[in-house]
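Notes to self after the Tuesday call (sharing in case useful).
The group wants a holo model before anyone commits to mutagenesis around the pocket. I volunteered. Ligand is zinc ion. Logging inputs and output together so the record is complete.
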Amino acid sequence: MPTTLIHNITTLVTNDQSLGKGALGLLQDAAVVLDGTRVAWVGPTADAPAADEAYDAEGRAAIPGFVDSHSHLLFAGDRTQEFNARMEGRPYEAGGIRTTVAATRAATDEALEANLTRYLAEALRQGTTTFETKSGYGLTTEDEARALRVAGRHTDEVTFLGAHIVSPDYADDPAAYVDLVTGEMLEACAPHARWIDVFCEKGAFDGDQARTILTAGKAKGLHPRVHANQLGHGPGVQLAVELDAASADHCTHLTDADVDALAHSETVATLLPGAEFSTRAQWPDARRLLDAGATVALSTDCNPGSSFTSSMPFCVALAVRDMGMTPDEAVWAATAGGAAALRRTDVGHLRPGARADLALLDAPSHVHLAYRPGVPLVSAVWREGTRAV
Ligand SMILES: [Zn+2]
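Result:
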Protein backbone atom coordinates (compact mmCIF):
# COMPACT_ATOMS: atom_id res chain seq x y z
CA MET A 1 0.00 0.00 0.00
CA PRO A 2 1.41 3.47 -0.85
CA THR A 3 1.92 6.04 1.91
CA THR A 4 -0.51 8.97 1.99
CA LEU A 5 0.21 12.47 3.29
CA ILE A 6 -2.86 14.42 4.41
CA HIS A 7 -1.67 17.99 4.84
CA ASN A 8 -2.99 21.50 5.39
CA ILE A 9 -5.24 20.43 8.31
CA THR A 10 -6.22 23.59 10.23
CA THR A 11 -6.97 21.81 13.54
CA LEU A 12 -6.04 18.19 14.16
CA VAL A 13 -7.47 16.28 17.13
CA THR A 14 -4.89 13.62 18.08
CA ASN A 15 -6.25 12.73 21.56
CA ASP A 16 -2.62 12.57 22.69
CA GLN A 17 -1.51 15.27 25.09
CA SER A 18 2.15 14.68 24.25
CA LEU A 19 1.48 15.61 20.61
CA GLY A 20 -0.46 18.85 21.10
CA LYS A 21 -2.47 21.14 23.32
CA GLY A 22 -4.96 20.11 25.99
CA ALA A 23 -6.79 16.84 26.51
CA LEU A 24 -7.41 16.57 22.75
CA GLY A 25 -3.73 17.02 21.87
CA LEU A 26 -4.68 19.72 19.35
CA LEU A 27 -2.24 20.59 16.58
CA GLN A 28 -2.67 23.59 14.25
CA ASP A 29 -1.55 23.58 10.58
CA ALA A 30 -0.99 19.86 10.89
CA ALA A 31 -0.36 16.86 8.68
CA VAL A 32 -0.73 13.10 9.04
CA VAL A 33 1.05 10.35 7.11
CA LEU A 34 -0.77 7.04 6.69
CA ASP A 35 1.28 3.93 5.92
CA GLY A 36 -0.88 0.95 5.06
CA THR A 37 -3.47 0.53 7.76
CA ARG A 38 -1.55 2.60 10.35
CA VAL A 39 -0.70 6.20 11.18
CA ALA A 40 3.03 6.59 10.52
CA TRP A 41 3.64 10.25 11.38
CA VAL A 42 1.80 13.27 12.87
CA GLY A 43 3.10 16.85 13.10
CA PRO A 44 3.19 20.32 11.55
CA THR A 45 2.59 20.48 7.79
CA ALA A 46 5.90 22.36 7.42
CA ASP A 47 7.83 19.35 8.79
CA ALA A 48 5.90 16.63 6.99
CA PRO A 49 7.94 13.90 5.28
CA ALA A 50 7.38 12.99 1.64
CA ALA A 51 4.80 10.33 0.81
CA ASP A 52 3.68 8.44 -2.29
CA GLU A 53 0.39 10.31 -2.44
CA ALA A 54 -0.74 13.66 -1.07
CA TYR A 55 -4.18 14.88 -0.11
CA ASP A 56 -4.72 18.59 0.54
CA ALA A 57 -7.21 19.04 3.40
CA GLU A 58 -7.60 22.67 2.29
CA GLY A 59 -7.81 24.02 5.80
CA ARG A 60 -10.37 21.57 7.14
CA ALA A 61 -10.24 20.07 10.64
CA ALA A 62 -9.48 16.38 11.24
CA ILE A 63 -10.45 14.05 14.07
CA PRO A 64 -9.89 10.36 14.79
CA GLY A 65 -12.76 8.33 13.34
CA PHE A 66 -15.67 8.04 15.79
CA VAL A 67 -15.83 4.89 17.93
CA ASP A 68 -19.49 3.96 18.39
CA SER A 69 -19.30 1.46 21.25
CA HIS A 70 -23.04 0.75 21.58
CA SER A 71 -25.49 -0.11 18.80
CA HIS A 72 -28.21 -2.65 18.04
CA LEU A 73 -28.06 -3.08 14.27
CA LEU A 74 -29.15 -6.72 13.85
CA PHE A 75 -32.87 -6.12 13.44
CA ALA A 76 -35.67 -6.04 10.91
CA GLY A 77 -38.68 -3.78 10.65
CA ASP A 78 -39.13 -0.34 12.14
CA ARG A 79 -41.20 1.23 14.92
CA THR A 80 -42.37 4.48 13.41
CA GLN A 81 -45.82 4.08 14.95
CA GLU A 82 -44.40 3.53 18.44
CA PHE A 83 -42.26 6.66 18.09
CA ASN A 84 -45.23 8.60 16.84
CA ALA A 85 -47.38 7.40 19.75
CA ARG A 86 -44.67 8.33 22.24
CA MET A 87 -44.39 11.81 20.78
CA GLU A 88 -48.14 12.04 21.37
CA GLY A 89 -47.45 11.50 25.07
CA ARG A 90 -47.27 7.77 25.85
CA PRO A 91 -44.17 6.62 27.80
CA TYR A 92 -41.48 4.22 26.49
CA GLU A 93 -41.57 0.72 27.95
CA ALA A 94 -38.99 -2.00 27.41
CA GLY A 95 -41.81 -4.22 26.02
CA GLY A 96 -41.67 -2.41 22.68
CA ILE A 97 -38.66 -4.58 21.88
CA ARG A 98 -41.04 -7.51 21.25
CA THR A 99 -42.24 -5.89 18.01
CA THR A 100 -38.69 -5.95 16.67
CA VAL A 101 -38.13 -9.51 17.90
CA ALA A 102 -41.07 -10.74 15.80
CA ALA A 103 -39.85 -8.92 12.67
CA THR A 104 -36.24 -10.06 13.17
CA ARG A 105 -37.15 -13.72 13.61
CA ALA A 106 -39.18 -13.56 10.39
CA ALA A 107 -36.34 -11.98 8.37
CA THR A 108 -33.94 -13.95 6.17
CA ASP A 109 -30.19 -13.85 6.85
CA GLU A 110 -29.80 -11.81 3.66
CA ALA A 111 -32.37 -9.22 4.78
CA LEU A 112 -30.74 -8.94 8.20
CA GLU A 113 -27.30 -8.40 6.69
CA ALA A 114 -28.59 -5.93 4.09
CA ASN A 115 -30.13 -3.87 6.89
CA LEU A 116 -26.90 -3.94 8.90
CA THR A 117 -24.83 -2.93 5.87
CA ARG A 118 -27.15 -0.03 5.16
CA TYR A 119 -26.81 1.47 8.65
CA LEU A 120 -23.06 0.87 8.69
CA ALA A 121 -22.69 2.82 5.46
CA GLU A 122 -24.83 5.58 6.96
CA ALA A 123 -22.62 5.70 10.09
CA LEU A 124 -19.42 5.68 8.03
CA ARG A 125 -20.60 8.71 6.04
CA GLN A 126 -20.88 10.47 9.41
CA GLY A 127 -17.35 9.54 10.45
CA THR A 128 -17.80 6.29 12.41
CA THR A 129 -14.88 3.94 11.72
CA THR A 130 -15.26 1.50 14.65
CA PHE A 131 -18.53 0.18 15.92
CA GLU A 132 -19.86 -2.38 18.34
CA THR A 133 -23.15 -4.12 17.73
CA LYS A 134 -25.33 -6.63 19.55
CA SER A 135 -27.74 -9.49 19.15
CA GLY A 136 -30.88 -9.28 21.27
CA TYR A 137 -33.78 -9.32 18.81
CA GLY A 138 -33.80 -13.08 18.25
CA LEU A 139 -34.07 -14.43 21.79
CA THR A 140 -33.87 -18.06 20.63
CA THR A 141 -30.60 -19.96 20.48
CA GLU A 142 -30.74 -20.13 16.70
CA ASP A 143 -31.76 -16.51 16.13
CA GLU A 144 -29.22 -15.07 18.57
CA ALA A 145 -26.38 -17.14 17.10
CA ARG A 146 -27.20 -16.14 13.54
CA ALA A 147 -27.32 -12.44 14.46
CA LEU A 148 -23.83 -12.74 15.94
CA ARG A 149 -22.54 -14.62 12.90
CA VAL A 150 -23.83 -11.89 10.58
CA ALA A 151 -22.41 -9.13 12.81
CA GLY A 152 -19.02 -10.86 12.94
CA ARG A 153 -18.66 -10.47 9.18
CA HIS A 154 -18.56 -6.68 9.70
CA THR A 155 -16.91 -6.00 13.08
CA ASP A 156 -14.80 -7.62 15.81
CA GLU A 157 -16.85 -5.85 18.48
CA VAL A 158 -19.78 -8.25 18.71
CA THR A 159 -21.91 -8.51 21.84
CA PHE A 160 -24.19 -11.36 22.88
CA LEU A 161 -27.37 -9.78 24.30
CA GLY A 162 -29.67 -12.78 24.66
CA ALA A 163 -30.69 -11.07 27.90
CA HIS A 164 -32.20 -8.02 26.20
CA ILE A 165 -35.68 -8.85 27.51
CA VAL A 166 -37.21 -12.13 28.67
CA SER A 167 -38.26 -13.87 25.47
CA PRO A 168 -42.03 -13.64 24.94
CA ASP A 169 -41.93 -17.46 24.71
CA TYR A 170 -40.93 -17.53 28.41
CA ALA A 171 -43.21 -14.76 29.69
CA ASP A 172 -44.57 -17.08 32.39
CA ASP A 173 -41.20 -18.49 33.41
CA PRO A 174 -38.37 -15.94 33.36
CA ALA A 175 -36.12 -18.27 35.42
CA ALA A 176 -36.27 -20.85 32.62
CA TYR A 177 -35.25 -18.14 30.15
CA VAL A 178 -32.22 -17.25 32.30
CA ASP A 179 -31.35 -20.96 32.27
CA LEU A 180 -31.56 -20.97 28.48
CA VAL A 181 -29.44 -17.82 28.12
CA THR A 182 -26.74 -19.16 30.46
CA GLY A 183 -26.90 -22.68 29.03
CA GLU A 184 -27.59 -23.76 25.48
CA MET A 185 -27.83 -20.21 24.06
CA LEU A 186 -24.52 -19.10 25.59
CA GLU A 187 -22.87 -22.29 24.35
CA ALA A 188 -23.99 -21.53 20.78
CA CYS A 189 -23.26 -17.79 20.93
CA ALA A 190 -19.97 -17.51 22.81
CA PRO A 191 -17.79 -18.54 19.83
CA HIS A 192 -19.23 -15.64 17.79
CA ALA A 193 -18.95 -12.81 20.35
CA ARG A 194 -16.37 -10.85 22.32
CA TRP A 195 -18.78 -9.34 24.86
CA ILE A 196 -21.82 -10.31 26.92
CA ASP A 197 -24.43 -7.73 27.89
CA VAL A 198 -27.63 -7.64 29.99
CA PHE A 199 -30.46 -5.13 30.06
CA CYS A 200 -30.51 -4.73 33.86
CA GLU A 201 -33.72 -2.78 34.36
CA LYS A 202 -37.20 -3.10 35.82
CA GLY A 203 -39.20 -5.00 33.17
CA ALA A 204 -36.10 -6.79 31.87
CA PHE A 205 -33.59 -8.48 34.25
CA ASP A 206 -32.97 -7.78 37.95
CA GLY A 207 -29.56 -7.58 39.59
CA ASP A 208 -29.39 -11.25 40.59
CA GLN A 209 -30.41 -12.47 37.14
CA ALA A 210 -27.96 -10.07 35.51
CA ARG A 211 -25.11 -11.26 37.75
CA THR A 212 -25.91 -14.91 36.92
CA ILE A 213 -25.90 -14.20 33.19
CA LEU A 214 -22.75 -12.05 33.14
CA THR A 215 -20.86 -14.49 35.35
CA ALA A 216 -21.80 -17.38 33.08
CA GLY A 217 -20.59 -15.35 30.10
CA LYS A 218 -17.29 -14.59 31.79
CA ALA A 219 -16.75 -18.30 32.40
CA LYS A 220 -17.11 -18.78 28.64
CA GLY A 221 -14.50 -16.14 27.90
CA LEU A 222 -16.86 -13.23 27.15
CA HIS A 223 -16.22 -9.87 28.77
CA PRO A 224 -19.17 -8.02 30.37
CA ARG A 225 -20.83 -4.73 29.52
CA VAL A 226 -24.17 -3.71 31.05
CA HIS A 227 -27.28 -1.74 30.07
CA ALA A 228 -27.56 0.05 33.41
CA ASN A 229 -29.70 2.68 35.11
CA GLN A 230 -31.48 3.90 31.98
CA LEU A 231 -35.09 4.09 33.10
CA GLY A 232 -34.58 4.39 36.85
CA HIS A 233 -32.22 3.73 39.73
CA GLY A 234 -31.09 0.13 40.02
CA PRO A 235 -28.21 -2.26 40.62
CA GLY A 236 -26.79 -2.19 37.07
CA VAL A 237 -23.94 0.28 37.57
CA GLN A 238 -22.71 -1.32 40.80
CA LEU A 239 -22.86 -4.74 39.18
CA ALA A 240 -20.90 -3.48 36.16
CA VAL A 241 -18.16 -2.16 38.44
CA GLU A 242 -18.18 -5.31 40.60
CA LEU A 243 -17.65 -7.50 37.51
CA ASP A 244 -15.10 -5.14 35.91
CA ALA A 245 -17.40 -4.56 32.93
CA ALA A 246 -15.75 -2.49 30.21
CA SER A 247 -18.73 -0.18 30.25
CA ALA A 248 -21.96 0.68 32.06
CA ASP A 249 -24.23 2.01 29.36
CA HIS A 250 -26.93 4.71 29.74
CA CYS A 251 -26.16 5.82 33.35
CA THR A 252 -29.11 8.21 33.33
CA HIS A 253 -30.29 7.66 36.93
CA LEU A 254 -27.30 7.54 39.26
CA THR A 255 -26.91 7.81 43.02
CA ASP A 256 -23.80 9.44 44.48
CA ALA A 257 -22.55 5.92 45.27
CA ASP A 258 -22.99 4.92 41.61
CA VAL A 259 -21.00 7.94 40.43
CA ASP A 260 -18.31 7.22 43.02
CA ALA A 261 -18.10 3.55 41.98
CA LEU A 262 -17.63 4.51 38.33
CA ALA A 263 -15.05 7.16 39.19
CA HIS A 264 -12.94 4.60 41.07
CA SER A 265 -13.09 1.84 38.48
CA GLU A 266 -11.97 0.95 34.97
CA THR A 267 -15.63 0.80 33.92
CA VAL A 268 -16.50 3.53 31.43
CA ALA A 269 -19.81 5.41 31.76
CA THR A 270 -21.23 5.30 28.23
CA LEU A 271 -23.91 7.92 27.71
CA LEU A 272 -26.44 7.49 24.91
CA PRO A 273 -28.22 10.80 24.42
CA GLY A 274 -30.06 9.58 21.33
CA ALA A 275 -32.19 7.47 23.68
CA GLU A 276 -33.15 10.38 25.90
CA PHE A 277 -33.82 12.51 22.82
CA SER A 278 -36.06 9.87 21.23
CA THR A 279 -37.96 9.06 24.42
CA ARG A 280 -38.13 12.63 25.77
CA ALA A 281 -36.47 11.40 28.93
CA GLN A 282 -34.22 13.10 31.47
CA TRP A 283 -30.68 13.66 30.17
CA PRO A 284 -27.79 11.81 31.81
CA ASP A 285 -25.62 14.22 33.82
CA ALA A 286 -22.26 14.01 32.10
CA ARG A 287 -20.90 16.97 34.08
CA ARG A 288 -21.44 15.16 37.37
CA LEU A 289 -19.59 12.07 36.11
CA LEU A 290 -16.69 14.06 34.65
CA ASP A 291 -16.31 16.20 37.76
CA ALA A 292 -16.15 13.03 39.87
CA GLY A 293 -13.37 11.66 37.64
CA ALA A 294 -15.28 8.98 35.71
CA THR A 295 -14.33 8.14 32.12
CA VAL A 296 -17.24 9.06 29.85
CA ALA A 297 -18.00 7.73 26.37
CA LEU A 298 -20.71 8.83 23.95
CA SER A 299 -22.48 6.40 21.62
CA THR A 300 -25.56 6.29 19.44
CA ASP A 301 -27.42 3.25 20.86
CA CYS A 302 -28.69 3.02 17.29
CA ASN A 303 -31.79 0.80 17.41
CA PRO A 304 -35.25 0.94 15.85
CA GLY A 305 -37.12 1.50 19.13
CA SER A 306 -35.57 4.05 21.45
CA SER A 307 -32.76 5.76 19.49
CA PHE A 308 -32.92 5.44 15.73
CA THR A 309 -29.87 7.56 14.94
CA SER A 310 -26.52 6.40 13.60
CA SER A 311 -25.04 9.88 13.96
CA MET A 312 -22.15 10.41 16.37
CA PRO A 313 -22.04 14.14 15.47
CA PHE A 314 -25.68 14.41 16.60
CA CYS A 315 -24.79 12.75 19.94
CA VAL A 316 -21.86 15.16 20.38
CA ALA A 317 -24.17 18.12 19.81
CA LEU A 318 -26.76 16.82 22.31
CA ALA A 319 -24.09 16.13 24.94
CA VAL A 320 -22.79 19.67 24.67
CA ARG A 321 -26.18 21.35 24.56
CA ASP A 322 -27.96 19.33 27.24
CA MET A 323 -25.54 17.23 29.30
CA GLY A 324 -23.02 19.78 30.47
CA MET A 325 -20.09 18.65 28.33
CA THR A 326 -17.71 21.05 26.62
CA PRO A 327 -17.17 20.48 22.88
CA ASP A 328 -13.66 19.16 23.65
CA GLU A 329 -15.00 16.68 26.23
CA ALA A 330 -17.76 15.48 23.90
CA VAL A 331 -15.40 14.92 20.95
CA TRP A 332 -13.00 13.04 23.24
CA ALA A 333 -15.87 10.91 24.59
CA ALA A 334 -17.05 10.05 21.05
CA THR A 335 -13.56 8.93 19.97
CA ALA A 336 -11.11 8.04 22.77
CA GLY A 337 -13.97 7.43 25.21
CA GLY A 338 -15.58 4.91 22.88
CA ALA A 339 -12.23 3.17 22.47
CA ALA A 340 -11.88 2.95 26.27
CA ALA A 341 -15.40 1.48 26.48
CA LEU A 342 -14.23 -1.26 24.10
CA ARG A 343 -10.84 -1.57 25.83
CA ARG A 344 -9.13 -0.75 22.56
CA THR A 345 -5.80 1.09 22.35
CA ASP A 346 -5.43 1.11 18.55
CA VAL A 347 -8.40 3.39 17.74
CA GLY A 348 -9.84 6.65 19.06
CA HIS A 349 -6.54 8.57 18.73
CA LEU A 350 -4.03 9.50 16.02
CA ARG A 351 -0.68 8.70 17.59
CA PRO A 352 1.85 7.04 15.29
CA GLY A 353 0.94 3.36 15.31
CA ALA A 354 -2.81 4.02 15.60
CA ARG A 355 -5.15 2.43 13.12
CA ALA A 356 -5.42 4.86 10.22
CA ASP A 357 -9.00 5.98 10.93
CA LEU A 358 -9.59 9.67 10.36
CA ALA A 359 -12.44 12.00 9.43
CA LEU A 360 -12.10 15.40 7.79
CA LEU A 361 -14.68 18.02 8.74
CA ASP A 362 -15.90 20.77 6.48
CA ALA A 363 -15.06 23.22 9.26
CA PRO A 364 -11.97 24.89 10.73
CA SER A 365 -12.35 23.09 14.07
CA HIS A 366 -13.89 20.08 15.80
CA VAL A 367 -16.01 22.50 17.89
CA HIS A 368 -18.24 22.92 14.84
CA LEU A 369 -19.63 19.42 15.49
CA ALA A 370 -21.62 21.02 18.34
CA TYR A 371 -21.69 24.59 17.02
CA ARG A 372 -23.35 23.51 13.74
CA PRO A 373 -25.74 20.72 14.82
CA GLY A 374 -27.48 18.73 12.12
CA VAL A 375 -25.08 19.85 9.40
CA PRO A 376 -23.27 17.06 7.48
CA LEU A 377 -19.74 18.29 8.24
CA VAL A 378 -17.90 15.02 7.65
CA SER A 379 -16.47 15.39 4.15
CA ALA A 380 -13.90 12.58 3.90
CA VAL A 381 -13.17 9.44 5.92
CA TRP A 382 -10.20 7.06 5.93
CA ARG A 383 -10.70 3.68 7.57
CA GLU A 384 -7.72 1.40 8.06
CA GLY A 385 -5.78 3.62 5.68
CA THR A 386 -8.30 3.41 2.85
CA ARG A 387 -10.36 6.38 1.71
CA ALA A 388 -13.85 5.12 2.58
CA VAL A 389 -15.89 8.32 2.01
ZN1 LIG B 1 -28.69 -0.44 24.02
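Two things stood out.
The two ends are 18 Å apart (CA to CA).
The mean pLDDT is 96.
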